[in-house]
Amino acid sequence: xxxxxxxxxxxxxxxxxxxxxxxxxxxxxxxxxxxxxxxxxxxxxxxxxxxxxxxxxxxxxxxxxxxxxxxxxxxxxxxxxxxxxxxxxxxxxxxxxxxxxxxxxxxxxxxxxxxxxxxxxxxxxxxxxxxxxxxxxxxxxxxxxxxxxxxxxxxxxxxxxxxxxxxxxxxxxxxxxxxxxxxxxxxxxxxxxxxxxxxxxxxxxxxxxxxxxxxxxxxxxxxxxxxxxxxxxxxxxxxxxxxxxxxxxxxxxxxxxxxxxxxxxxxxxxxxxxxxxxxxxxxxxxxxxxxxxxxxxxxxxxxxxxxxxxxxxxxxxxxxxxxxxxxxxxxxxxxxxxxxxxxxxxx
Length: 347
Ligand SMILES: [Zn+2]
Known about the structure:
The chain is an alpha/beta fold. The protein contains 8 helices and 20 strands. The strands form 5 sheets. Strands 1, 4, 5, 6, 7, 10 and 11 form a 7-stranded mixed sheet that branches. It has a 5-stranded mixed sheet with strand order 12-20-19-15-16, with no helix packed on it. Strand 5, helix 3 and strand 6 form a beta-alpha-beta unit. The chain starts with 23 loop residues before the first strand and ends with a strand. The relative contact order is 0.14. Bound molecules: zinc ion.
């Protein structure tokens, strides 16, 4: 189900190169803002300050995440470049290094938290008192699960499999109990969920949808009204993605509006190690040129386009673990558009 229940409003057939494409929102994902934390999930305070300068220079309007989603859902207009900032895991460096810089600019942001380590006062995490102060000064507190579990890997990680009867009970403990702790400590917060490790399955998505949550992964790309509301993308902005040359083009990126037909789940069938991505462009006339897809570790891959239909297959087997297809095309005014499909190969 898309963010916007009925896409009929968007009038896809009528839209050509001179038309107005529906709005996109870029969501950035951070973890640590520090110099002594794991490189792949960190930016330094100096880098973070440079990111904020780049965001300002891009002309982007920084919005609260929940407000941006509501605007997309309601079909409201948004600034030409709309952006939201998120942090996963509630590390202390958010309060120490990131918050003062965001506060100075008056920019809102969201922290996705795991209540169990906070309740256990585990070292390195923000306390509820600190989160209350940040929330009073512009932060929204989202749900990242009670613990930081691999939520769809089942028995290999000591959890029920998504298709098992006990899974709903597990989710009630993981998601609803986490939300109850968040709301008790901070007052009612919007129903925003971020999948630990960016891993999800159709059963989990359907359950979150029934509970009224919008849910974010860690695959890249902007979101738009047609995005699957329980498979929302974010651009990772840490580690190698924290370099300004990598970040800058993403700040003004538009969603490559499409309906993905294959794969149906990010979890690939056991026998599939060379998946095929198939999708239909929602506004094919807006993309006169080719669509080019890329795959983790394999670079640009052969991509065919016939009218609105696009297909790309993995040329070589994928390793176990997470990967993703990324596809880009140029739209009106030469602006780049981006679509991502996450993949997970389990042993
Ligand atoms: Zn996390």
